[in-house]
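Subject: Interface between my chains keeps coming out wrong

I've been trying for a while to get a sensible model of this assembly. When I model each chain on its own everything looks fine, but I need the whole thing in one frame so I can look at the contacts. Pasting all components below, labels as-is. Any help appreciated, I'm running out of ideas.
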Amino acid sequence: MATTTLTPAATTYQTGLYAWLTTTDHKKIGIMYLINSFVFFFIAGIMALGVRTELAQPGLQFFTDLQYNELFSMHATFMIFVFIIPILAGFANYVVPLQIGAPDMAFPRINALSFWMLPLAGIILLLGFVTGGTAAAGWTSYPPLSEDRPLAAIGAGQDLWIVGLVLIGTSSILGAINFLVTIFKMRAPGMTLFRMPILVWTVLVTSVLVLMATPVITSALIMLFIDRNYGGSFFDPRVGGDPILYQNIFWFYSHPAVYVMILPAMGMISEILPVFSRKPLFGYKAFIFATAGIGALGFSVWAHHMFTTGAVYLPFFSLMTFLIAVPTGVKMFNWIFTLWRGKLSLNPPLLFALGFLSMFLIGGIDGAFSASVPVDFALHDTYWVVAHLHYVLFGGSVFGVMAGFYFYFPKMTGRMLNETVGKLQFVVMFIGFNLTFFPMHELGLAGMPRRIADYSSTAGWNDLNLLATIGGFTIAASMALFLWNVFVSLRSGAIAGDDPWEGNTLEWATTSPPPPYNFDHLPEIRSERPLFDVRHGRTAAH
Amino acid sequence: MSSSPRNRSSSTITVVVVAFVLIALAALAVVSGTGQAFVTGLYPPVAVTEQGAKVRDLYTIVFALAVVIFVLVEGLIIWTVIRYRRKPGDDMLPAQTHGNNVAELAWTIIPTIIVAFLFVISWQTLNEVDATSASAQTRIRAVAGQFQWQFDYLADDGQTVQYTQQLATGDGGGLYVPAGRNIQLSLTSQDVIHAFYVPQFLFKRDVVPGRVNKFDFKVDAADAGQTFRGQCAELCGAGHRLMLFEVHALAPADFDAWLADAIANASATPPPAPSGPATPSGQPAPSGQAAGPTLQVSAQNIAYEQSSLEAPAGTPFSIEFDNKDAGVPHNVSIHKDSASGEEVFKGDIFPGPAQKTYDVPPLPAGTYAFVCSVHPNMTGTLTVK
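Reply #2:
Try treating it as a single job with all components included. I did that and got this:
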């Protein structure tokens, strides 16, 4: 770009381990978020392979019942709290200051603190494996099971789980405050709220959700800790407590957390589709209102996780859950009509983004089944729900993460990821994902409950389980391709240049990787696509 | 790659199309051989209750709408990607469309109408399937605990227990219900949260400690004689997968006879009987004291504390069984060769903490397994020589 005059600043990333451990640079912290998240992604993925291997055939072959419960409990805990939420925070950390033309986050040292809590929390969660057993009551850890009942949570693992999650929650809250202040106070001249990239908007809404919801689950976790260790009576019915109270508090956070896990991924998709179709995002403002609408409605649907408890006013939560499909549908159509009449370049970022669109669609349609209370009576707590949540969190979030990774890797490293390997990874991952999770719809409808270590060979679930296991290992193969691509491209990938994709937003107006404090000179910001204006002139934008 | 990484698209199209086709083929081929099986697999089982049939009708409407929306939107995505891919060397900018308010309104209002419709029909069905009547003809209470079900048959007052069915599966066990009658099931838990789930009812309800959940159901009269598989659906600990039960639907007259028999048998052999198997499959207890040695067996935390026992061949012997699990029923039964082998002795099932002495008839030399009839994962080896 003519607007940047710095020489490529790759040397700033070669200043040794000490510089990384002590950095307050949002870009280095963002990259450390990504690395940390991927490490725990692979650990949690191996746990998933353990689960699928045990279920491939009827009979207990590899694990005891309790070990199996530990595996799926920790798989979900790591995937949700130590992979998806942090990796999206990592992308936001790297990209948001660049996209709004800021030199760094508002509170760089708090930013570093937020990050370093995460590996610590991950290690605390893992410690359960060497202290007599991890948490084994599911990632939801419903009491009374998670309290003191035999054969559920015997060791210190459940307490370690609580401590780890409180740490992660604290990290999230600090991060959310940091993002909000950065977005409201650090924008470059000309970057009005309605010229901000959609990714920044989704991070803004996500931060509000985190700020409002996370303190609530923290209170639930601390009440659980008191019940377990000091004879509290919050959730134990024998001494006047109510186990349903925990579920209400838990889901008051954990449903909005679903949007924390998907909105920033939607934000990245909304950056990628315009670039690779060479068109502006269709309905920019409608998209922002839809995002805010999802955030607001997201606080009124939590009890749809509790339809079968007999302790919920069903019509209200059913109605709100149905309604949240509307803003989600608005987004889907805006994305499709961004592609419509565009000039699509099917590079890996767009391929993964299309994977997001087509798979999240299935996850979203599944949601309408669960919103219908009588249908949910049949489907709740079966493998159907496992299918639904993976179509949202894998088909949505993980495909979004991959799209974002292929998109931003050149900016972060100065090198391109290999295109051919990327396309191959996409195809293998797409096939593996559907082989694993589509059959789970049918398993659930056929009556297979979730969280069981074994099933009868006469129940008719053998073939579908074997298929899902084959799919699980196919996903693992796609991840091997991904790792190989990253390692090879880091050493010998093609040089990216400042703006390999003809991007629209400010992060592409600086070097790859950007220097400390990001910009020497900013282009004029007169729309949500300042770089497009520079490249084609303001008049071309209409 | 850095000069024009965006222009190589035609091969990718092929790849994407191949991927979609592969998915479709794999799904069709592997699931059970035919496309028809694939579609029926996306459907819940045929309902055997009046309420379940209504849920299934509702599912049909939701499913039909879902398929239409899926085909339209997914088709639109695929068609757009194929139609509007960038040709190599094409550097023209497409028209820069920023949006269209009419379109935004359309795809806000139409989905709102669809979900409002789905909400209303769901609510109507909910009021039909989740209603509890004051005039239920049969009242049963399911009591769930780690990791077994028991079923209390209640008198018309809804309180007095006429008969308790302790075994949830297997020989003589299970939830017996009269087909064609209105049944009210109340659910209570002894410990953690469980869930009562029968796939063919298309229904489940959580069993929450400290609460009593109730629901009504009526098994279709035509399904008398059938048995349905049920299972706990809420994670309840290490033995969660073992919390199976069977529902036996009987013609009303057969049910009445079964219940009268069960009540008569239960009062003939009161639960605290000192010894001897009470179930039809057990051996008759020998009179007087057993001549042989006495073996000690104890159970705690849903496991036997002994893994192997030895007994002499050809002489009767006794087992002193100490059940230390409060509120949890156990017993000791003996099976030939392994836990899945033929049952040669079955002791009384009783809840702990309590002790009981079983008199076991003479057994030929060989290897046996001792098993808890309630918890099939509780096993040990008995060597007779």
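Reply #3:
Confirming on my end. Chain A has one domain: 10-541.
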